[in-house]
Write a structure and sequence with these properties.
The relative contact order is 0.18. The chain is globular. It has one domain. Strand 3 and strand 4 form a beta hairpin. The protein is about 20% helix and about 15% strand. The chain has one helix and four strands, in the order αββββ. The chain has about 80 residues and is an alpha+beta fold.
Length: about 80
Amino acid sequence: MLHALFNSADAIRAAAVHLEAWAAKWQMSYGVAKCGVMCIRAKAGPPPALDPPVLLHEQAAPFVSEYRYLGAIIDDKLSFKP
């Protein structure tokens, strides 16, 4: 799982390109279906749109409001539900 904080959509896209290059260099693979982009922010309201979307292996990474990791649910409000 790639944990990273970015302050712009362009930075997220650049990180995705870097991830793909790293995976190719080390002959590693990852499942795009298990990936997601989450916006965590202090302001209320809908998350910003990512247009164009973040691409991994030429597939759009889904925009998610929560993600399950090692049994814990991490959501965009950081409530850490069990």
